[in-house]
Amino acid sequence: xxxxxxxxxxxxxxxxxxxDFGMKRKGRDDLLPMWVADMDFRLPDEILxxxxxxxxxxxxxxTDPLDDYFDALNHWYSARYGFTTDPEWVxxxxxxxxxxHLSVRAFTEPGDAVMVMQPVYYPFSEAIRNxxxxxxxxxxxxxxxxxxxxxxxLERKMREEKVRALIFCSPHNPVGRVWTEEEVVKVAxxxxxNDAVLMVDEIHSDFIFPGHSFFSCMRLDEKYRKNxxxxxxxxxTFNIAGFQSANIIIPDETLRAKYRRANREAGYSQANIMGQxxxxxxxxxxxxxxxxxxxYIYGNVRYAEDFIAENLPKAKVVKPEGTYLLWVDFSGYGIxxxxxxxxxxxRAKLWLDAGGIFGPETALFERFNLAAPRPVVVGAMERLxxxxxxxx
Length: 392
Ligand SMILES: Cc1ncc(COP(=O)(O)O)c(C=O)c1O
Fold this sequence. Notes:
Layout: H1 17-20, H2 22-26, E1 32-33, H3 45-57, H4 67-81, E2 90-93, H5 96-107, E3 113-116, H6 123-130, E4 134-137, E5 141-143, E6 146-148, H7 151-160, E7 163-169, H8 181-193, E8 197-201, E9 228-232, E10 246-249, H9 253-266, H10 273-285, H11 287-311, E11 316-318, E12 325-329, H12 337-347, E13 350-351, E14 353-354, E15 365-369, H13 374-388
Helix pairs in contact: 3-10, 4-10, 5-6, 5-9, 7-8, 11-13, 12-13
The protein binds pyridoxal-5'-phosphate.
Residues 37, 95-97, 121, 169, 173, 201, 203, 233, 235, 241, 246 line the site of pyridoxal-5'-phosphate (PLP).
């Protein structure tokens, strides 16, 4: 490998949400954090050099995207996913969570039904509730350690509840499914038939494991574009969430006008210059680094899976097909969600995302963030083992 992902870089004292907010958020600072989806790897020198070049200019005024920006986007999208976008379709935003909240306001009315598929990234539900819309959940079907979409439930609820929009996570956080083309088309068909906007968050699409291929919603047939909104960002891929870079791509003019109107009403005008520069640098120069990184993370996933199978026989890993998140089912231990949390915090001394935040039915799951150097993952697994040994 050209890049050294084993290097442990101390992030404490860098105002970093993952490591520096233990006291504030948990009342303690003795936990190993594997919660928020934020990686512990340093960007490669070739990308940092580009950022330094921009910083060294010393002036950081307003900006708007120029051709270089759209060229970088299309370079990435065409090389990785087989589509290109018309720059006209793209609106920049301050992150995907912002864009998804705004979209709920733009595409639906107060009281309208908006659908999610739980367990799912919890800000989707917040975007619905925070805006006074009705949350309709189409619970993912969990069987034999694998998740799938319950299309019968999806069709029925869309029709009966008059769902106006679906927030679709592809690949899916936290369960790690990389939806197949067939699944994406089926979802798109149901949205089209029920006149619901299909909002697709593809922020995890650069983390796809061997044996799986990613099908972007932007490769759907043109007929689906009239109600399609696509949310994309280099934030997870290159761990630049702090730059708040996001692209909201809406091919249909009428739907795009609705989004842009809500965006104007919210007072958003320009993206930040560093986010824009970072996207150009990452999407132009970052492919070799990312390819090695995904291979490395896949190694972490396999290590954790094997370790858990061997040492925590009653826990079940939901085999991820992509993302850097590991979704683990602890229900086999027969303990309460409170005891699970107590063991994770007080015995393992791990800071994870408890399953209950992704939906009420998964309180006995935990989500692990494996985007860390292997020695850190190894240490975390050892802690986990000690915390459950008496129950095995
Ligand atoms: C599915 C998904 N969407 C969006 C985000 C956050 O996006 P942003 O930082 O651009 O708001 C995350 C972060 O974990 C995520 O998992």
